[in-house]
Amino acid sequence: MTSPFDIEEMFPNDGDRPLRLPRRQAGNSPQGVAVTLLADYTLRTRAALPSAAIVALLAESGVTTAGARTAISRLAGRGVLEGSRQGKRSFYRLSHAAAANLSAGGRWILSATAATAPWDGCWTVVAFSLPQERSAQRRALRGQLRWLGYAPLYDGLWISPHELTPPARAQLAQLTLGAVTVFRARQPELDAVGQRAPIDAWDIPAIARHYAAFLRRWTPLLPRMTSGRVDGAAAVRARTEVMDTFRRFPTLDPQLPLDLLPVGWLRGPARELFAAVYDGLAGPAEQHVRALVARFTGSAHPGIRAHTTADLHAGVRDDEPCPSVSMSSRSRTAPAP
Fold this sequence. Notes:
The chain has helices spanning 30-42, 51-59, 65-78, 96-112, 135-147, 166-176, 204-218, 221-226, 232-246, 249-252, 267-280, 282-297, 309-314; strands at 49-50, 81-86, 89-94, 123-128, 151-154, 157-160, 180-185. The chain is an alpha+beta fold and 337 residues long.
């Protein structure tokens, strides 16, 4: 089973756009924190924020000024951020590609942790064979399979309890160029000693420990939230951390059938706790972000709005309004943050 800190990408990249979201690291990288912050408060509006305000927000999460400026520059180079300049000030906002990618990832987070439908008892099996000289292609295929909810039963044999959708089949075809076979089947009952069950492709006890740790970490925050004792920068940090942690669960536990899992599986309680914290702190966190940005713009920014689980469900539409600072002066080369 993949560790939650070994997932290569936060969300799958869109192959049709020049976008590279930051890689996962052991802990929170400055680039990852920056993307989470901008998505949490500007995803639906793609509001452009002063680079100085983004640096200040990152500083509240423990990122140094140098680290924050480097993260902004690298995200602009990856196509995640778009830069503009107004006078001596530089501004950044999420690119269209990043917003669409992050929106898809948000819907995936909630749908993959929702209650599972009845399982038909069949497994989708993906078998592939790629030579050693195509190691980069093999890594890309494994990363895509992992994001789609598959796990390796054996080295070149990945499985999922869910059917492979046509879009996912097309994605895999682009990565393998005919070197993959996909079929759906049931596991026959055998008397052979040492038979490995498909569910063993996932480390169920380890996943359970991650759920239990998540509940231990965030449950004590609820009474403090209800009494109004979590606000300002603390509310922003908590929302960033709870999102960064919870969004790893769909890859660890991709809606595995409950009848194959231990009684009292904690997927549902973890999802409810995530929603309680993320939505419960939306108000005070939004107020803090608005106030901080206003220090650099001189007025309240209409494009700052805390993203909620309802927004994750709804996603981002192509006609979503963008009440942000004018981007008419944007150049092809992003300005220095």
